[in-house]
Design goal:
34% of the residues lie in helices and 17% in strands. By secondary structure, it is of the alpha/beta class. It folds into 2 domains: 120 residues, Aspartate Aminotransferase, domain 1, CATH 3.90.1150; 269 residues, Aspartate Aminotransferase, domain 2, CATH 3.40.640. The strands form 3 sheets. Strands 4-10-9-8-7-5-6 form a 7-stranded mixed β-sheet, with helices on both faces. Strands 11, 12, 13, 14 and 15 form a 5-stranded antiparallel β-sheet that branches. It has a 3-stranded antiparallel β-sheet with strand order 1-2-3, with no helix packed on it. Strand 1 and strand 2 form a beta hairpin. Helix 3 crosses helix 11 and helix 4 packs across helix 10. The protein binds pyridoxal-5'-phosphate. Pyridoxal-5'-phosphate binds next to helix 4. It comes from Szabonella alba. Belongs to the class-III pyridoxal-phosphate-dependent aminotransferase family. One of its GO terms (molecular function) is transaminase activity. InterPro entries: Aminotrans_3 (IPR005814), Aminotrans_3_PPA_site (IPR049704), PyrdxlP-dep_Trfase (IPR015424), PyrdxlP-dep_Trfase_major (IPR015421), PyrdxlP-dep_Trfase_small (IPR015422).
Length: 432
C-alpha cells in the first residue's frame, strides 16, 4: 500500500522519546474536536487521543476553573493538607457511582488506578484474615496498564512477555468474544457460557487463593469496544460473590460517560467491589484518575493499620479542580445523552460500510466507544495476513487525511485488527 508521506515538520533530533522513533508534527492548538499542527493542518480528533478528551479540547469552563484554582494553590501534600477541590471531587464522584461505592482514592492515571485497586484488594483480604488470597484472574485479551502489577494482569502477550520473569504469573480466562466464536451475543446462554469459564478457573485455582477478578465492562483498546454478551456481567458478579472473590471493574476507558451511561457497567446495573477510572475523568485537562471502593472494603483496611499505598501527586488540587469542571460540563451540556445519540448514528454509518467493504468483519461498541474490525474473510473471521500491517496503514492514511483514529493489533491467537472510532462526546452529526 502506498502511504502518503506524513512527515513531521523538520526539527532537530529530539531528546524526548516514547515507544518508537516515530516523530509527529508539533501541536499548535486544539479546540473541541479539532487539533491543529504548527503548519496549520487541521485534524479531527476521532479517537479523543487515546479515548481521553471526552469533552473536547480547551473547554472554556474547565480552563477558567483551572485558572481560578491556580491562583489559590497548585499543590498541597496529602499528609499535610486536605484541599477543597479533592474533597468536592470525591463527593461528586461518589454520587455518580452505584449505591455503596462511596470511598474515593485519587491517582494520576489508569495504571495507578488499577495498581491501587489490586493493593487495596490484597490488604482487604489480609485485614479479614484471608491471607491465602492473592491471585487476580483477568481476561485475554485485556489491557490494564503498563506498570508491573497492572501488566501482570494484562492479557496481551506482545506487551507482557518481555517482562514475564519480573512478574507474578496470574491466571487468565478468554474474553467473551462471541463474534469470533460464532455465538449469539444476545442469547443469555452465551453470557452463561463465558461466565462459566470464570467459575471453572476459580475452582481450578482453589477459591481460597483467588483474591479478585478484574474486567473491563466494555472493552477498550485490547478487545476493541467489546460489549459483553447478555447476562455475562450479572453472572460474573454472582460467581465472585459466591466464591468470596472481589470484583474489580476497570472503567479506565469505558467510564466517564462515553458509552452513553456514566459507567460502562451502568448498562447492566452491576455493582462491583472496586472501580478504577481515569482517561475521561480528567479528560486530558490534567493527569487524574481514581479508585472507588465500597466502604466495607476500605473500612477494615484503614482500621487494620492503614492502606500501604499512595502517590505523591494524588489529589492534586489543580487536577481535581479540572476534574470537577469536567464533570460539570458533562452534566450541564448533557454529554452522556449526546454520546448515546451521536454514537448510535456513527455506529449505523459504520455498519453501512460493511455492505461495500466485505473485509469489515464486525462493528461493535456502545455510545461513542465504537470499533470496527478488519478480517480476511467475514465468514470465518480469519484475520488479515500479518504481513499486511493494516493497522498501521489505515491509521497513517487517515492521519494524512486529517483524521485521527486509534488501533491496536491483537496478536494472541485468532485475532484481527481493530480500529477505535471514539470522537469527543461533544461530536455532532456534522462530525460523524
Ligand atoms: N485500563 C484500561 C482499560 C486502559 O484502557 C488503560 C489505558 O489505555 C489503562 C488501564 C492504563 O491507563 P494509563 O495509560 O492512564 O496508565
Amino acid at each position: 500500500m502506498n502511504i502518503p508521506p506524513n512527515l513531521p515538520n523538520a526539527r532537530p533530533e529530539s531528546h524526548l522519546f516514547y515507544q518508537t522513533r516515530q516523530r509527529r508534527p508539533l501541536l499548535a492548538e486544539a479546540r473541541d474536536v479539532y487539533m491543529w499542527n504548527v503548519e496549520g493542518k487541521r485534524y479531527l480528533d476521532g479517537s479523543s487521543g487515546a479515548m481521553v478528551s471526552n469533552i473536547g479540547h480547551s473547554h472554556p469552563h474547565v480552563l477558567a476553573a483551572m485558572r481560578a484554582q491556580m491562583e489559590k494553590s497548585t499543590f498541597g501534600y496529602r499528609l499535610h493538607f486536605e484541599t477543597d477541590p479533592s474533597e468536592r471531587l470525591a463527593a461528586k464522584t461518589a454520587a455518580l457511582m452505584p449505591e455503596g461505592m462511596e470511598k474515593v482514592f485519587f491517582v494520576s492515571g489508569g495504571s495507578e488506578a488499577v495498581e491501587s485497586a489490586l493493593k487495596l484488594a490484597r490488604q482487604y483480604a489480609l485485614a479479614i484474615g484471608q491471607d491465602s488470597r492473592w491471585k487476580v484472574i483477568s481476561r485475554r485479551p485485556s489491557y490494564h496498564g503498563c506498570t508491573l502489577g497492572a501488566l501482570a494482569i494484562t492479557g496481551y502477550a506482545p506487551l507482557t512477555d518481555p517482562f514475564a520473569p519480573m512478574m507474578q504469573a496470574m491466571p487468565k480466562i478468554p474474553a467473551p468474544r462471541a463474534y469470533l466464536d460464532g455465538l449469539d451475543p444476545e442469547d443469555p446462554a452465551t453470557g452463561a457460557h463465558y461466565a462459566a469459564m470464570l467459575e471453572a478457573e476459580i475452582i481450578a485455582q482453589g477459591p481460597e487463593t483467588v483474591l479478585a477478578f478484574i474486567v473491563e465492562p466494555i472493552g477498550g483498546a485490547s478487545t476493541g469496544a467489546l460489549v459483553p454478551p447478555e447476562g455475562y456481567m450479572q453472572a460474573v458478579r454472582d460467581i465472585c460473590t459466591r466464591h468470596g472473590v472481589l470484583l474489580i471493574h476497570d472503567e479506565v476507558m469505558c467510564g466517564g460517560g462515553r458509552t452513553g451511561r456514566f459507567l460502562g457497567a451502568d448498562h447492566w446495573g452491576v455493582v462491583p467491589d472496586i472501580i478504577a477510572i481515569s482517561k475521561g475523568f480528567g479528560a486530558g485537562y490534567a493527569p487524574l484518575g481514581a479508585m472507588v471502593a465500597q466502604d466495607r472494603i476500605v473500612g477494615p483496611v484503614l482500621d487494620g493499620g492503614g492502606f500501604l499505598h499512595g502517590y505523591t501527586y494524588a489529589g492534586n488540587p489543580l487536577a481535581c479542580a479540572a476534574g470537577l469542571a469536567v464533570l460539570s460540563v458533562i452534566e450541564a451540556e448533557g454529554l452522556v445523552g449526546n454520546a448515546a445519540r451521536i454514537g448510535a448514528l456513527l455506529k449505523s454509518r459504520l455498519e453501512a460500510l460493511m455492505e461495500p467493504f466485505p473485509f469489515i468483519g464486525d462493528v461493535r461498541g456502545k455510545g461513542l466507544l465504537l470499533a470496527f474490525e478488519l478480517v480476511a474473510d467475514r465468514q470465518t473471521m480469519a484475520p488479515l495476513p500479518a504481513a499486511m500491517n493494516a493497522y498501521v496503514d489505515l491509521v497513517e492514511l487517515a492521519y494524512a487525511e486529517g483524521l485521527i483514529i486509534y488501533s491496536r493489533r491483537t496478536r494472541d491467537g485468532r485475532e484481527g485488527d481493530h480500529f477505535l472510532i471514539c470522537p469527543p462526546m461533544t461530536a455532532t452529526e456534522a462530525h460523524v
